[in-house]
Structure formats: C-alpha cells, structure tokens
Amino acid sequence: MEGVGTYSREMSFLSDWGRRFALGDSWRGLVARLVAAVVLIGIVPGLPSVTITIFRDHLKPFSEVTVPLGLAVSVATLILWAGMTGAIAFMFSRGPHLSVAGELEEDTGAQCFRLRLWNKSRAACRAAVEIKSVKDDLGNSLLSPAQAPLELQ
Fold it and tell me: How much is the pLDDT for 4?
C-alpha cells in the first residue's frame, strides 16, 4: 500500500517542480523566465574563458583546466534555480491538497447547508472552516458582527 501513495506523491512533486522551474504560476512568471533565458544566452558567448590551475607543493602544475566562464555561470545558475524550485515544490507536494465545492448543498432533512471539502492527496489532515460573513443576493449581511467568525464542524 505504501507504493501507491509514493507514486502519487512523486508525480505531484514532479509536475509541481516542472511548473515552477519552467512555466511559473502566471504569464508574468513565464515572461520573466524567458527574459532570463535570453539574457543568459546573450551573456554566455561574451564572457571570457578562465583557466583553473591546481598546484601541489610549489612544483609544476598538478592539474590545469580551461573553462568558458559563460558556460560555468549558466550551469551554476541553472543548478541553483533547479535546487530552489525543487525545494519549494517538495514542500508543497508533502501537504494536503484541499478542494472546496463551488456551491452549498441544501439538506432539508437536517435543516442545514453542507459545504463539501475534498482532500486529493494521501496526507492526513483535519480541516477547520470559519465563516467570516454571509450575504444575501442584495449584498445585505446575514451574520451579525457578534456571531462572526463562526466556526463550522
């Protein structure tokens, strides 16, 4: 039974990470990512190469590597961005995913209204709901300030 929840959790993490890494949560996020990619692509060829030399006991160079600085900056930026978005996605994929019904259901037998909540994840949770205001079709408040907030069970 553990494997079913793990697969669902991993897929939730991967889809959330892909969205945060590449697309963003709005069109502004997508535009910002595209601008950053264009800037990095424009900077990479213009940066010089750097030679890294490792000496040992003041003798001749032990190791010498020439690295294009633009490529190093791009890879480091990509790894940093992947790590940050991955950490955020991991934190959000671990918790419950609650959905709320769009309308109240009338229960004439119990003389009440019901608001449906669904937990779409395997994470256990206990929802607490408070009503802060209730208005009719004309915008008049049906809940007095002395009654608010009203906690539902």
Answer: 45
Phi, psi angle pair for 68, to nearest 5°: -65, 125
Dihedral angle over CA of 36, 39, 45, 46, nearest 10: -130
Helix ranges (DSSP H) in the chain: 2-18, 27-43, 69-94
Q: Are 17 and 24 in contact (CB under 8 A)?
A: no
Tokens of 32: 């910002």
Give the range among 5-9, 64-68, 117-121, 146-150 with minimum mean pLDDT. 5-9
Question: What contacts 46, CB < 8 A, 6 or more positions away?
Answer: 70
Burial of 89 (0-12, 13-18, 19+ CB in 10 A): buried
* Identity of the amino acid at 16: D
- Can you state the angle between helices 2-18 and 69-94, rounded to 10 degrees? 130
pLDDT tens-place string over residues 44-59: 777 788 887 777 777 7
The tokens of 99 are what? 């959905």
* Backbone CA torsion sign across 140, 142, 143, 146: positive
Domain ranges of the chain: 2-94, 96-153
How far apart are the C-alpha atoms of 106 and 90, rounded to whole Å? Answer: 38
